[in-house]
Amino acid sequence: MRRPPAKGATGGSSGDGRATNGAGRMGVRRPSRGVVSVGRWKGGGGGRAGVGRRGERSCGRALLEVIFLVQGQGPYSGVSDGRILKWNGEKLGWTTYAYGPGYDSKTCTLSKFSPETENARESRCGRPLGLRFNQNSGDLYVADAYKGLMRVAPGGGEATVLVNQVDGFPLCFTNGVDVDQVTGQVYFTDSSMNYQKSQHEMVTRTGDSTGRLMSYNPRTSDVTVLQAGMTYPNGVALSADRSHLVVASTGPCKLLRHWIEGVNAGTSEPFADLPGYPDNVRPDTKGGYWVALHREKNELPLVVIVIVSLSGSVTMGR
Hints:
Keywords: Glycoprotein, Vacuole. By secondary structure, the protein is mainly β.
């Protein structure tokens, strides 16, 4: 098995569960997905990314997002049977770290499911799509497509559902999550109020614009809708200066910037046009962002990587 990525790397997820494994690398099998690097630039966004190709490989059972704990433990990854796995090195491999309410190994992991019954399994067992640790408390926050926003206590075990409805409307397709490591505030997305993950293609086909970007305060348990009426909000990342959030908008193939601090707080604007359908987004170490792409626009799935510079010029990956 391939070695896990370097300490501190984070990755993105794909629709079929394969995952990227770090900043600047892909860890998935062909046919695959891609990664885009969106660099820093001045002004109100409007950057454009190009594409390049990278090699790939996968491991485990339908890996979703891959993350590390700050102490170098892991990586950790959600998988398609509802569990969150932890990598324990070559000798022990992957072990179960956490799972959502309603999970049992006989039904969720050991049973054989046909494509016709797979959706029923996901609905019961869960499908963790987004993972993010609070590096101070050790709590793991999970965006589960069916169960909502969950928290796993340090050490793992059964997750606690924190949010499964907001303002009287259920979370239908919980998708991305990020944590402010200074305040502990949690940011997450609900991709649609009309369609679940099992109907994710309908979100794109219909142009559904009922998605929501929200915040959760772990001290008060208050949930705030930061923006409603969004088109397929997916991954979310807090900027390095904590002034704004970058949200992957899958259907339109764009990144959006939502300001949470400063004179523009509460407003959103286009941030970047992408060459494919984005899934997760994570900041890099230079003020830019890595974006996992499900596939390119109007093309068969490919692994892609680009770098957009501070001036907006595009460099093709190799």
